[in-house]
Amino acid sequence: MKRKHKRLTFVVIAGLFIALAVGLMLSAFEENIVFFRTPGDVASGSIEEDRRIRLGGLVEEGSVVPGADGLVNFSITDTVDTVQVTYVGILPDLFREGQGVITEGKLMNGVFVADEVLAKHDENYMPPEVSDAIKEAGQWYEDGEHGSGDQ
Amino acid sequence: MGRFFCVLRRDLHLALRQGMDSFMVVMFFVIAVVLFPFGVGPEPNTLARIAAGVIWVAALLSSMLSLERLFLGDYEDGSLELLVLSPATLETLVLAKIAAHWLTTGLPLIVAAPFLAILLNMDGEGFVTLVAALALGTPTLSLLGAVGAALVLGSRRGGVLLSLLILPLFIPILIFGVSAVDAAVGGYPVKPQFMILGGFLALALPLCPWAAAAGLRQSLE
Amino acid sequence: MAMIEKYANPTVFLGITRPLVPWLGGATVATLSAGLYLALFASPADYQQGESVRIMYVHVPAAWMAMMCYTSMAIASGVGLIWKHPLAHTAARATAPVGAAFTLLALVTGSLWGKPMWGTWWVWDARLTSVLILFFLYIGYMALNNAFDNAQRGANAAAVLALVGFVNVPIIKFSVEWWNTLHQPASVMRMDGPTIHASMLWPLGLMALGYTLFYFWVLIIRIDADVTAGKIRALRQRRAHS
């Protein structure tokens, strides 16, 4: 009987610890540990210049200006705040206006100098005809918003 | 409870008698970190940026060093069988051995870490976070390591095998330990990282002694 | 329990499953060829990704299988530890290399897909990192299994490791929801139904079925080989003693 009692105490203590662990982890996830920062973080001034960060958001419509030698200027927006980005190099296939992207680099004089641009794609897969049909029916969400907005 | 402290005291006595073990672990820690300025160049900014990661990785590797001995001595001289046969729950005794391991290796690493942070030119804001994160993370390392140490008992090439098993399991602690320090240096809140490190510890505290005890039992079958 | 005991006898198990091997092999080849034809030629290109989306049909089912194999390995290990059925350990041991191969396939195809789509071969986001850890766990499992002179000890020790490492599986599954990852969230196995068009879902499902059939096919062959190897070992020992 005593041994059984002991077992039970152990199981209860272990259960409490595991519950504590789950509670801690779940509330930590609400605090939002991020793979990237957003233009809102830049606007709030919480990001130091010259520190290497990842900046993520949507490529603002009409902001992409290609220059010479692979130079590209564009803006990243979280639909509220916008950051000017400059980048030299090859862009991924999925890079286009309205697409969710993650850039890596440093903030210099208010301009984000990226040395890497990654395109984020969303979890929707469909043939082009279908996407056209949905767009025509007027049931399309803002292009790309789904890709980075819902996480 | 009495038996817990009995095993703890015994292991601490053994460690202090030999003395060298703890010292060598800390020396390994220091030397491993000191290698980096030679490897990546002495530029202060570069060193400051990688300081947290280097210290954490070196801490992982150093706590690996002494893990192989955790149960091996008892296994070889037969006292492990006495522990298994003792009326106390094996899990409690395993926890005592783990606590002794942490006190003799984890704790010295935490004490040494700030000095290494100075050598690596780490930002002042990171110091407290580094020590606190190590204090929360290294017990989990000892707990996880005990599972590996129990599993490789009696195998060929135990030491190498142990690192192969355990280092992947250390990765989450490394990630959040480093990210806590980076967040502190960058001026971001460190609470979520600490909550996750605390969560790992709370999860490992009951589960790892249980798994390690299961490993020990089957090693004696 | 009595029924499980009966089928857990390797001879009975192999008596039932051995005749299935050619059928499973044939079904695997047929399903995978149909699936690959649909995936690579007959299915439409994606509205955003174009033709590169075809990598998905190889990548996604491989990633599913990587997790499925680990889950079955962990369950078999648990059964082997609790009820001490040698067949469960054999099944777990037979699963490990298949699971590791699927994990590697998922990592490699993901990398090939990531370069054109995301613009990088590899990023250290939560999904990619946790799958890499899964691969290391498979390797560790196999190494531990083979590290003992006494095969039974290896099986037991590796089984404990498989159970401990199982923590990683839910982390992989939910990493894309918990963290802000570069990897996109789930498209098929989600609460509100698939977000993938039917014309692409069919080839994907067929490929997943083909991979699963392949797994069971190889599993039976490997269990058969393992049991036979055990018999040979026993015969040799008997001869050495006599």
Mind explaining what this structure looks like?
The complex is a heterotrimer of chains A (151), B (221) and C (242). Chain A has 151 residues and is α+β, with helices and mostly antiparallel strands. Chain A folds into 2 domains: 1-33; 39-149, Nucleic acid-binding proteins (OB fold (Dihydrolipoamide Acetyltransferase, E2P)). Chain A has helices at 2-30, 39-43, 128-136, 145-149, and strands at residues 52-59, 65-66, 71-77, 82-88, 100-108, 111-119. The longest helix of chain A is centred in the first third of the chain and has 29 residues, at 2-30. Mean pLDDT of chain A is 75; it is low at 142-151. Chain B has helices at residues 2-18, 20-40, 44-65, 69-77, 79-85, 90-119, 126-151, 158-186, 191-220. Chain B has one domain. Helix content of chain B is 86%, strand content 0%. The longest helix of chain B is centred in the middle third of the chain and has 30 residues, at 90-119. By secondary structure, chain C is mainly alpha-helical. In chain C, helix 4 (55-83) runs antiparallel to helix 5, helix 4 crosses helix 7 and helix 5 runs antiparallel to helix 9. The two termini of chain C are 38 Å apart. Chains A and C meet through strand 6 and helix 3 of A and helix 8 of C.
Write a concise keyword list for the protein shown above.
heterotrimer, B: 221 residues, mainly alpha, 9 helices, 86% helix, C: 242 residues, 78% helix
Summarize the structure.
The complex is a heterotrimer of chains A (151), B (221) and C (242). Chain B has 221 residues and is mainly α. Chain B contains nine helices and no strands.
Layout of secondary structure:
The complex is a heterotrimer of chains A (151), B (221) and C (242).
Chain A: H1 2-30, H2 39-43, E1 52-59, E2 65-66, E3 71-77, E4 82-88, E5 100-108, E6 111-119, H3 128-136, H4 145-149
Parallel strand pairs in A: 4-6
Antiparallel strand pairs in A: 1-3, 1-5, 2-3, 3-4, 5-6
Chain B: H1 2-18, H2 20-40, H3 44-65, H4 69-77, H5 79-85, H6 90-119, H7 126-151, H8 158-186, H9 191-220
Helix pairs in contact in B: 1-6, 2-3, 2-6, 3-6, 3-7, 3-8, 6-7, 6-9, 7-8, 7-9, 8-9
Chain C: H1 2-8, H2 10-17, H3 20-42, H4 55-83, H5 86-117, H6 126-145, H7 151-165, H8 168-178, H9 198-241
Helix pairs in contact in C: 3-9, 4-5, 4-7, 4-9, 5-6, 5-9, 6-7, 6-8
